[in-house]
Amino acid sequence: MPESLRAEDGVADFCQDQAAGLRRLFGHDQLRVIAFASGSAGAGKTSIVANVAVALARQGREVLVVDENQGPHDVGGFFGLHPQGDLLQVLNRQRSLGHVLFSPVSGVSVLPAGRAARQLGSLTAAQQHAMVEGVNSLEHPADVILVDTCNDHAHGFSPWGLAAGETVMVVSGNGASITDSYALIKKVSLAFSRRHFRILVNRVKSMAEGSVIHDNLHKVAAQRGIAQLEYGGAIPLDGALRQVGQLCQPIVASLPDSPAAIALRDFATELLAWPNAEYEQGGVEHFIQQLLHLSHRLSPSVLLA
């Protein structure tokens, strides 16, 4: 049989097997996939993702965090843990998915995917099947997927982030963060017609400051026809965050009455009430189809041009 036909058959089988496997992994037809991005490092994105995951788990949700970062500032590092593998090892059949996933707290599973995320658009049929087999081996469902996107993806933005139903842009209160975040929004919007982002302003001195930053970004984006920027809220500047961060503890659990913990917990609750995206109504299969379709369309020139 020609190699091209074997590849096509492999992709077809992959899509069918993946649907069954993902039902077992996620357990529900209703699913929320939310990507967190920032225009540059230092906005506090990973801390927000980790705390939101814990807040959701404390509300009885099963949360899967897809971590595209590598090194001491990844999600594992936030919890003081050192991941023992990466999704790429699963795709290459070097480790099982169960040995790559780790759970820093009850109800939260973290999938280190930094290396795999960069190769998502060029997976071979064998790697696709390895992913399916790994997914089929898991039984714990997830209600919410949070994607902690990396800032230096080879394509300019994460395929997981593009496929997610919501993209939250984490912006800190300084001018550089605001400028860099707007530049990323513009790039993604123009390249892929993604016209909706939620703005979460971090480390504000007052909640009014968060509204002002969003309003200014919204005004510029609307005037230039870039995108609709919806206000997702603000997280106050809280000295307790640094304190618990040194102890590798999420503030929503260790200091639940602190201003930052209250704001993060409120944000986690509110995101569950956001309108369902089309793929969520169609179930996990629709989301994965979007992910594969987008990842195979991406090329470095698309977003970096």
Helical content (DSSP H or I, runs of 4+): 40-55%
Number of strands: 8
Q: The CATH topology, please? A: Rossmann fold
Largest sheet: 8 strands, mixed
What percent strand? Answer: 15-25%
Please mark out the parts with pLDDT under 50 across 5 or more consecutive residues, or reply none.
1-17, 19-24
Mean pLDDT: 83
Q: In total, how many domains does the architecture comprise?
A: 1
Question: Termini, distance in Å?
Answer: 39 Å
Count the helices. How many? 16
Strand order of the largest sheet: 3-4-2-5-1-6-7-8
CATH architecture: 3-Layer(aba) Sandwich
Shape: globular
Order of helices and strands: HEHEHHHEEHHEHEHEHEHHHHHH
CATH superfamily: P-loop containing nucleotide triphosphate hydrolases
> Taking Cα atoms only, what radius of gyration do you get, to the nearest Å?
19 Å
CATH top level label: Alpha Beta
Give the class from helix and strand content and strand pairing: alpha/beta
Task: Note down, in words, how this protein is organized.
The chain has about 300 residues and is of the alpha/beta class. It has one domain (about 10-295): Rossmann fold (3-Layer(aba) Sandwich). It is about 50% helix and about 15% strand. The chain is built from 16 helices and eight strands. The protein has helices at about 5-25, 45-60, 75-80, 85-90, 95-100, 115, 125-135, 160-165, 175-190, 205-225, 240-245, 250-255, 260-270, 280, 285-295, 300-305; strands spanning about 30-35, 65, 100-105, 110, 145-150, 165-170, 195-205, 230-235. An eight-stranded mixed beta sheet has the order 3-4-2-5-1-6-7-8, with helices on both faces. Strand 3 and strand 4 form a beta hairpin. Helix 1 runs parallel beside helix 7, helix 1 crosses helix 15 (about 285-295) and helix 2 (about 45-60) crosses helix 13 (about 260-270). It is globular. The N and C termini lie far apart (about 40 Å). The relative contact order is 0.18.
